């Protein structure tokens, strides 16, 4: 199971950073402000959790709870936008949130 | 209030890293393994929360909840050891956990 | 000396995150895209270096070199903008870059 | 190319955290202190670089230079130890250092 979780965390880290970059290149960047913020928050907590799982940290469940909530918030925001990068990010975040739920 | 929280998070980051370093120099490093692990977990979530507060992230409460729990776990472990660095770290973590509680 | 470096790194982390937040609230966010990107890069490398110094890492000089360059890039971008948050961030980054230079 | 670099960075992050965990479970933890320190440094700079690449940061080359040097230091230390986790980590770090060199 861990291998799948690690893959989903990695996918989510990459999707959030890709979306962050792409949002900053959009014509109406102002509309993407919340997306840019959440992409950053989400990528950072996913990175922390990915590392914590790989070293058998005793805090995996605590971090997974936070990660799940932040992934869900990022998915909710991204899903409002039609851009491909937002839709792809919403999908990665939703799957990652589901994977986190299994670690709690 | 934020300024105090930010100072306590910074103090906790520094105390945890100092304790990590000092534990690895102790004669009986094996006894300090859990302390070394928790010092790392605690410094990393404090760093994330410090940054999140400073940019008015919408995820401050979620991260503060995780940070509080990890600070408490680190304080509980460090307080078992008589080394000055462990006692100082336990104190910093306890105060930081209390500060986090006010952000939730 | 380390205490001053640590204070300048902390100031830079906070200034970069504050600037990131404030840039995303500006009327013309599109003009601030590079600033938003560099604020994030800069805060993250400063956070890594702050922790590395506090645990006597053998990689302080390597990280300080990277941190100096990223602080200088962020200062150069921020100094182009008249916003108070950009000017404050440019100042914090310039002082932090100077502090990093002494660690190399 | 980027996809390969990202895979090698991810492999290195996981190998370093796995080695960190396993070193702390070894009978003679004191002998592994430098390994534990370098595993942490290495995983953290790899995480930063992985994210920077994914968002087309202008600081990829600067971070890749630091990452290469830290990967090489971690590989040099890990290769001194016969434990499987150290040998696996040394291999992942060596390959990651080579990948970083191509980004500079």
UniProtKB/TrEMBL annotation, chains A, B, C, D:
Gene3D superfamilies reported in the protein's UniProt record: 1.20.1270.360
InterPro entries: Csp_YhjQ, YHJQ-like
Protein name per Swiss-Prot or TrEMBL: Four-helix bundle copper-binding protein
């Amino acid at each position: 199971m861990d291998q799948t979780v690690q893959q989903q965390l990695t996918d989510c880290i990459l999707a959030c950073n890709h979306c962050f970059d792409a949002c900053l290149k959009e014509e109406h960047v102002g509309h993407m402000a919340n997306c840019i913020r959440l992409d950053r928050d989400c990528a950072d907590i996913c990175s922390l959790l990915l590392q914590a799982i790989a070293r058998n940290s005793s805090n995996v469940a605590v971090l997974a709870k936070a990660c799940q909530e932040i992934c869900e918030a990022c998915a909710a925001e991204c899903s409002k936008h039609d851009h491909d990068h937002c839709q792809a990010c919403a999908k990665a975040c939703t799957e990652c949130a589901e994977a986190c739920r299994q670690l709690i």
